[in-house]
Automatic annotation (TrEMBL), chain B:
Cofactor(s) essential for the protein: FMN; FAD
Protein keywords: Cytoplasm, FAD, Flavoprotein, FMN, Nucleotide-binding, Oxidoreductase
Listed name of the protein: Sarcosine oxidase subunit beta
Residue span(s) of domain Rhodanese: 29-73
GO cellular component, one term: cytoplasm
Species of origin: Microbispora hainanensis
Length: 954, 410, 92
């Protein structure tokens, strides 16, 4: 221990000399620390000698930093400042000044206040998407970009280089990371290249639809500008995808392999080289392959004493063995680590010969483990690619795929011995770039200059060791985050489970935050060991998106609040707002619900509005009704086929009410049909169904009756409509439209006239949804507000909203589709036998009326209900029963209340209801259970007001 | 550091579940599909009807289809009497199931809230509550303030695009742990002598003179006196082997989980209008269901824009979820009928029975349908509770249309 | 998110389209002449194959035209698209 350099005292005792960057202050678990710009929270903690970062979920064992990237299985933290964020890996949190975090014992914590950050999403298209800016990815992107392809290069880290960041490898005679930085900067300067940093490709979907998430402001901490989206979802459609996603190192199951101080060898190398942090002082290395030797030597160079290397193999790479010998590092071939020991962190490591025998205890505060490297095949698998087991690598590599995607570099196992070789990866990346170019239809350059790599020692084969055998597997961890041990895996297989999926579910291995990045294959290996089969037979569990966790807010993006669904308003909206209207959401529309005056509640406002419509004059903004122009020589034929009644006999200048059914005979929509000319109709629909009706017409026209010469156009937003209602509506209209003859003979019910109303070109329809004398005045929506203001100018017209409209129509027994129907109601059920044509040979829905169920007499009919107490308002949705006392459940229901109101005109409450055999029950007394009471009601006709229709002509 | 051990109170699994069986040459009943419904049917065939010479054939790993992929919501507050009949029977069985199976199922009656966002939603919801009460199902209508009492993190402010106008609440509803349920049934059925045969895909049905006589499988032919289909999303394919066509369409349905979080969500919240359903599982992860893909597909994988839409809807209702993370998404294949109600009963082929069309709602019915389907298979006659769900309702038109008040039937 | 080649507009994201289920299911010539069983078959029964499926799509956010596609429901691969009225092309 004498030769190693002592850690610096004071701040950041484990920081290597020569580290540069601004000092940043942060707080972890209540203590203040300093780190450097460029640190992750993990590297900053290690620099400060913080070993135990979190405690494990089930057993409460201390856990430290295990890895140096997104595969981290252990160091879970909660961010407190600048804004609470649950569960991140310390290895992926970029340090920022003022960061406050705590180690997690398993569960994260959500903020108790709204997230002020913005999130957004963009679409991008490219010829070649390269995922991963390591050596293979940069080579692939360079080849593709320099041939003129549109290239996107995405990498999850703040700076390019991938594996080069963690090593001391050289390219073109300088540090590999410098080459990466230069090359990527040059690429980014090309016009058709987009380099995305801090951008993780998380999902690979059908047809090369690739989802990436860019973290744009997190690293800025509290200094993040509020107007920049914190995270951005990239929706990328790529003609070709190159996955240069590298590999993850895996560990080995042995006793105490979860203790702080146990770390993946490659991660330790990254901390030493990239972050200039020493993860410990004296290390034992445990490996199954050559890659850990480079780590050991780099750490030794950095000042960590390497006490010994335990290599499970008898024959490690000769060059590596020689280098170790040259450095005086003890090499124990054919050895395994049987236990890591220590109180709260590693203080010693027990090694023994693989076949057993006497164990030896070596003092160390660091245990570097390499169980081999697993290609990152997540995205390839997500894309639908198959995986095959690579014997040499001891891992699954990409196989076949239907999609235009390929893996390059170590992601497809290049190198093969358990660690990638730099030159092979560069060449493989360049080749992948060439293939991508060819596939995307570009001329492929003959050759490409690759940087020259340093000499790499010849590799010896790796050996695949999943676990160190023992009598007791209670502390051999397989999944660190879920506290799953080999003992538990053995229990699962002992219970009869033979599938990795079952074992995963029995033990929960692989289901934690890291989704088994380091543990998945290990679990399979241990299961294979237990079942006595080869791991290649077991396969892996399914790789599911996202590759790394993605915040809900990023996925929600901008589609929140008023942008969650478009808000549609009419031309008169501002007037309604100014007059204090309350609004009802009807589909996407905001419709005035009622206009309370000072001191009025909803009930009194609606009663007042109703009285105005029945006794005086009132107006409603009816602009939201769907309006479709149906034009063409066969327009009448189309409407005859879609409406239950006859439309072809409608005269030009006239209007007819119509109902549409689905083929199953159930009411789909209703509205009026206006004949503008022989070959031109204007159809209105319910507010919520406008788009559906247009789609319905188009579907029939295009797919069933393409021979019909008809065009349908939505004109809903082209027209603004004012319904002018009440006995005095004629005189108001006459005043507004002096040129229009408004008397009954000149302008009869269910006709329309073009006229100038308030100086505005208008189409006036004499239709009524209230039973009163009424007009609907339609003008170009540009003049909607002007018309409305003109109608309201004299102050004598009462504005009313949807609630009053509902009351008025219900008094007349006019159903509202969607309120008095629910998709199981026929026109006959609504008492509209009269609207179902007997003359037409067929129309959509007709055949279904003859089915057994649609023709049975006890179907639910629309009827009226009068509570015996005229002051009692039935709740909408109340049911009806026959008996005055409720028997034990189940009690058969006779039907339910669809609409219920207080009526000014009737001077009492009333309701509409769908009641089994209702028309035959008129006059009967039924009971509506309301709370604990049974409210007696009398069944009546559904038309309660002016059944003779005397009022419509004024 | 205070030690919290989320999930440490989770019960242990038994040391013995089932032994994978080799297929015999013949069985009294072959059940096609080793999901929850197939396993429950096997259990009740053995327990209620004494029929134990039964094989459950599963093409993959047992209960690895929709049983392993659903969001585990259990409720019985359906609109129509027919639906309430079978779902409430199921809920009553759930209430005694842990004891019956001798297996901890993490059945948690934490209640289910169905939110209303429009005046019509409110009418439909009140209608459903009242229908439920007449049927003896616990149901309540809650005002927005009462909704917030049940689930304090729901945003009931008017800033929500479609504000919460109230909700229905079924206190007896809740969740259970899907794998445990499957394994509980599998273990109990296996203990009674049922063979669990995994990695055995049915590739044909043997039909002679209008009667089924056995199945062809990837592990050879197996003779059977009766064949009961319980193949969920693959029902059309399997029934097609016997020439039986079913009014089904198979669609991907997705779900997702977050990381483990401290308890924030004490119940189950569903919203049809903005399309969210979410609960917080025992270990602390948020479990959420997404929408169904529009196009037919047998890919156990949905489209990503469905997930994005789901997340925006979730944040509308639960702004505190903003910085939670999606850990994992997955998809299943659901078989959907024209009226969003299942088909359970006889087929035109003698001794061939069908149970399918559960769409997005099959998990909650598991014990109920197992009970009734076992009765149907054992006696050759539909159980009264599944009689309304016959195949011929599509001919008569007597549908059980659950679209009306519950466009999402999870 | 499939990339669907609209025969009128070219390849577009699935989100622009509306799905219409099985193609080539004609509205019966004379519904009144059908038995209840036959009518039910038209109303409710559609093929649901695992494999190649001729189906309808409408490019609702684009040209608003209906067209047909042959898609493999096991892989989501679209083998062909064709206009309404054209026969189903022979696909592998």
């Amino acid at each position: 221990m004498s030769e190693r350099s002592e850690p610096m005292s004071g701040a950041q005792p484990y920081r290597r000399e020569g580290a540069t960057g601004k000092t940043l202050r942060f707080r972890f678990d209540g203590r203040d620390y300093e780190g450097l710009e460029g640190d992750t929270l993990a590297s900053a903690l290690l620099a400060n000698g913080v070993r135990a970062v979190a405690s494990s979920i089930k057993l409460g064992r201390p856990r430290g930093v295990y890895a140096a990237g997104c595969e981290e299985p252990n160091a879970l933290v909660q961010i407190e400042e600048p804004f609470p964020e649950p569960m991140l890996t310390a290895t992926t949190v970029e340090l920022c000044d003022g960061l406050v975090a705590t180690g997690l014992p398993g569960q994260g914590r959500l903020a108790d206040r709204p997230d002020p950050a913005r999130y957004d999403a963009v679409h991008a298209h490219c010829d070649v998407l390269v995922v991963g800016a390591g050596p293979a990815g940069i080579a692939a992107a360079s080849v593709a970009a320099r041939a003129g392809a549109r290239v996107i290069l995405a990498d999850e880290r703040p700076e390019p280089g991938g594996s080069l960041l963690g090593t001391t490898e050289t390219l073109d005679g300088g540090p590999g990371r410098d080459w990466a930085a230069r090359e990527v900067a040059a690429l980014a300067a090309l016009p058709d290249v987009r380099v995305l940093r801090r951008t993780t490709v998380v999902g690979h979907y059908d047809d090369n639809y690739v989802i990436a998430v860019e973290r744009r402001t997190n690293h800025l901490g509290a200094a993040a500008p509020a107007d920049v989206a914190r995270e951005r979802v990239w929706r990328i459609r790529a003609r070709r995808v190159v996955l240069a996603t590298g590999g993850h190192e895996r560990f080995v199951a042995f006793a105490g392999n979860d203790l702080p101080g146990v770390m993946l060898a490659g991660a330790a190398r990254t901390y030493a080289n990239h972050y200039r942090v020493l993860p410990g002082s004296r290390a034992v290395v445990f490996t199954t392959n050559d890659s850990a030797y480079a780590a050991a030597l780099d750490l030794a160079d950095a000042g960590v004493e390497i006490a010994a290397i335990a290599d499970v193999r008898q024959a490690p790479g000769e060059a590596w063995a020689a280098r170790c010998a040259g450095r005086g590092i003890e090499l124990l071939t054919g050895h395994v680590v049987t236990a890591a020991r220590g109180e709260g962190e590693v203080s010693s490591v027990e090694v023994s010969r693989r076949e057993g025998g006497e164990a030896r205890e070596i003092a160390a505060d660091l245990l570097l483990v390499s169980g081999g490297w697993t290609p990152v095949v997540h995205l390839f698998s997500q894309a639908g690619g198959t995986l095959r087991y690579d014997e040499e690598l001891g891992a699954f590599t990409p196989g076949e795929t239907r999609q235009a995607v390929e893996a390059a570099g170590f992601a497809r196992g290049v190198g093969g011995t358990g660690a990638r070789t730099l030159r092979a990866c560069l060449e493989d990346g360049a080749e992948a770039g060439r293939r991508a170019l060819a596939a995307a239809g570009f001329a492929v350059p003959a050759g490409i200059a690759l940087p020259s790599a340093g000499e790499e020692p010849a590799a010896a084969p790796a050996e695949h060791l999943w676990l160190v055998e023992s009598d007791d597997y209670d502390a051999h961890f397989v999944d660190l985050q879920r506290d799953v041990t080999v003992a538990e895996v053995l229990r699962a297989t002992g219970a009869g489970l033979t599938s990795v999926e079952h074992v995963k579910r029995y033990t929960t291995a692989g289901t934690a935050h890291d989704q088994g990045k380091t543990s998945g294959l290990l679990t399979s290996g241990v299961v294979a060991h237990a079942l006595g089969v080869d791991v290649s037979e077991l396969g892996t569990t399914t790789f599911r998106a996202p590759y790394t966790p993605v915040s809900f807010a990023a996925l929600a993006g901008r589609d929140r609040g008023h942008l969650h669904d478009p808000v549609r308003v009419t031309a008169m909206h501002e007037w309604h707002v100014a007059r204090g209207a309350l609004f009802e959401n009807v589909g996407q529309w905001k419709r005035p619900w009622y206009y309370p005056r000072a001191g009025e509640d909803m009930e009194s406002a609606v009663l007042r509005e109703c009285r105005a419509a029945r006794e005086d004059v009132a107006a409603m903004d009816a602009s939201t009704l769907g309006k479709i122009d149906v034009v063409g020589p066969d327009a009448a034929v189309l409407l005859d086929r879609l409406y239950t009644n006859m439309m072809s006999t409608l005269k030009v200048g006239s209007i007819r009410y119509g109902v549409m059914c689905r083929p199953d005979g159930m009411v789909f929509d209703d509205g009026t049909v206006i004949r503008l000319a022989d070959d031109r109709f204007l159809v209105t629909t319910t507010t919520g169904n406008a788009a559906a009706v247009l789609d319905w017409m188009e579907e029939w026209l295009q797919t069933e009756w393409p021979d019909l010469r008809v065009h349908c156009t939505s004109v809903t937003e082209q027209w603004a409509t004012v319904a002018l209602v009440g006995p005095r509506s004629r005189e108001v209209l006459a005043r507004l439209a002096p040129g229009l003859a408004v008397d009954n003979d000149s302008f009869p019910f269910m006709t329309w006239r073009d006229a100038e109303v308030a100086g505005i070109e208008a189409r006036v329809c004499r239709i009524s949804f209230s039973g009163e004398l009424a007009y609907e005045i339609n003008v170009s929506s540009w003049f909607g507000l002007a018309l409305w203001e003109a109608v309201m100018a004299s102050g004598e017209v009462t504005p009313y909203g949807t609630e009053t409209m509902h009351v008025l129509r219900a008094e007349k027994g006019f159903p509202i589709v969607g309120q008095d129907t629910d998709g199981t109601v026929t026109p006959q059920d609504l008492g509209m036998e009269w609207i179902v044509s007997k003359k037409k040979a067929d129309f959509v829905g007709k055949r279904s009326f003859a089915r057994a169920d649609t023709s049975r007499p006890d179907r639910k009919h629309l009827v009226g209900l009068l509570p015996e107490d005229p002051g009692v308002l039935l709740p909408e949705g109340a049911h009806l029963v026959e008996t005055s006392a409720l028997p034990e459940p189940p009690v058969p229901t006779l039907g339910f209340v669809t609409s219920s109101y207080r009526s000014a005109a009737l001077g009492r409450t009333f309701a509409l209801a769908l009641v089994s055999g209702g028309r035959e029950r008129i006059g009967e007394r039924l009971y509506a259970p309301v709370g604990a009471d049974l409210v007696p009601v009398t069944v009546t006709s559904h038309v309660l007001y002016d059944p003779e229709g005397a009022r419509r002509d004024g | 550091m205070t030690l919290r051990t989320p999930g440490a109170d989770l019960p242990d699994h038994p040391d013995r579940l089932w032994r994978p069986a080799e297929p015999k040459r013949a069985y009294d009943v072959v059940i096609v599909g080793g999901g929850g419904h197939g396993l429950a049917t096997a259990y009740y065939l053995a327990k209620n009807h004494g029929i134990t010479n039964v094989a459950v054939l599963e093409r993959g790993w047992l209960a690895g289809g929709n049983m392993a992929r659903n969001t585990t919501i259990i409720r019985s507050n359906y609109l129509w009497d027919e639906s309430v009949g079978i779902y409430e029977h199921a809920l009553k069985l759930w209430e005694g199931l842990e004891e019956d199976l001798g297996y901890p199922l993490l059945f948690s009656q934490r209640g289910v809230l169905n939110l209303a966002h429009s005046l019509q939603d409110v009418r439909d919801s009140v209608r459903r509550v009242n229908a439920n009460r007449l049927n003896g199902v616990d149901a309540e209508w809650l005002t927005p303030e009462q909704v917030k009492e049940v689930c304090p993190i729901v945003d009931i402010s008017p800033h929500v695009r479609y504000p919460v106008l109230g909700g229905t609440y079924q206190p007896r509803a809740g969740i259970a742990k899907h794998d445990y349920v499957a394994w509980g049934f599998a273990k109990a059925a296996a203990d009674l002598g049922v063979d669990m045969i995994e990695h055995c895909e049915v590739t044909g049905l043997d039909v002679r003179d209008g009667r089924v006589t056995g199945v062809q499988t990837t592990r050879g032919p197996i003779a059977a006196k009766k064949v009961a289909l319980a193949a969920a999303g693959h029902s059309s394919v399997v029934a097609g082997y016997a020439g039986v066509s079913l009014p089904l369409q198979s669609h991907p349905l997705q779900a997702l989980v977050s990381e483990l979080l401290e308890p924030v969500h004490p119940t189950v919240v569903m919203s049809n209008a903005v399309h969210v359903y979410v609960s917080q599982a025992h270990k602390g992860e948020l479990v959420m269901g997404a929408g169904i893909d529009a196009a037919n597909s047998y890919r156990q994988r949905g489209a990503f824009h469905i997930i994005e839409r789901q997340m925006s809807a979730a944040l509308e209702l639960f702004p505190v979820f903003a910085r939670a993370h999606v850990l994992r998404t997955w998809g299943g294949v659901v078989d959907v009928t024209p009226d969003a109600s299942p088909i359970v009963g006889l087929t035109p082929v003698e001794d061939l029975y069908v149970n399918c069309g559960w769409g997005t709602g099959g998990f909650k019915a598991t014990p109920g349908v197992g009970w009734c389907y076992a009765h149907t298979v054992a006696t050759g006659e539909p159980h009264p509770l599944n009689a309304p769900f016959s195949l011929d309702r599509f001919t008569t038109g007597k549908l059980v249309d659950e679209h009306g008040a519950a466009a999402v039937a999870h | 998110m499939l990339l669907i080649p609209c025969p009128w507009c070219g390849p577009r994201d699935e989100a622009e389209f509306h799905y219409g289920g099985q193609a080539h299911v004609a509205y019966p010539e004379n519904p009144a002449a059908l038995s209840d069983e036959e009518w039910a078959r038209y109303l409710f029964f559609r093929d649901n194959p695992k494999g190649l499926f001729a189906e309808r799509w409408s490019h609702t956010a684009g040209c608003r035209r209906w067209f047909n596609a042959v898609r493999d429901t096991a892989t989501n691969e679209i083998h062909a698209v064709y206009r309404v009225g054209e026969p189903r092309p022979v696909t592998a």
